Amino acid sequence: MGTLKEKLFNKKMIVILVISIIVITIGILVIKRISGNEEFQKENGSNEEKSITGLSNIHASVSSYSLRGHETGVDEFATLLEGKNIQLESNDMSKCFNITPGFVADNSEYQIFKFSDTSESFLVYQDEIYKIGNNKRGKGILNFALADNNQDEIPELYYVYEWSVSEILRSNVAYFDPISKKEIGLNKNYREQIVALISANQNSELWVYTADISNYEDNVNMNINAKLESDVIVNTENSIRLIERTELENLKNKY
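RE: above sequence
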C-alpha cells in the first residue's frame, strides 16, 4: 500500500502535473489570441491607421459643385437671430437662403445661410450663430467640404469664399473648428481666381482646384466647375495647411 512518504510524494506529483497542464493550456490560448489579432489586423488594417494627409471622413464634390439656395429652415434661423446681438448687412430676410449642401446636412450638425443681396453668410451650430467667410465686394462663400482633422469624429466645415480688396478679386479657404468654435483661415490667397474644394483619391485627400462659374443666377445659385488641381489640404504636426503636389509626394514618401 506504500508508506506515508510515498503517498505524499505521489500527491505532490499529481498537483505539479495539474498545474503544468493548466499553465500550458493558458499559454496556448494566449498565443492563439495574439495570432488571431495579428491576422485580423493584416486582413482589415489597424483601426488606428490614418490617411497620409491626416484628414479622414472627407465629404466633398468630386468635380462640379452646385450652389443652390432654398427656404428650408430660414424661418427658424430668423427666430434664432432675434435672440442674438448680430448686426446684419441686409434688411431683407426674404433675401436669406439655406445653402447647406446635402453631404453637410447628412453628416454634421452644421447649417449655412446666405443673403443673396449682400453675400453675407452665417453658420448655425448647436443653436449658436457664427458669421463665416468674407463677402466684401465679392460673391462670398461658394462651396464646402467636411473632413475630420483630429480624428474625434466631429468634422470641421471647410469652405471657399470670394471677396475683393483694392478692386482685385481673390479667393481664400478657411474652416470652422467645432472645438474652438472659431473660423481659421488657411495660408494662401488665390488672386483673381475662383477655387473649389474637391474630394480626391477615394476620399482620402481634400484638394483645392482652380474653377470657373457657370449658370450664374445670383449669389446663392450657380455652378462652380473644377478645372485644375492647385493645392491639397493636409494636417501635419498638428497644423492644417495648404501644400503643393510636390510637397504631398514628399509627405507620402516620408511615411
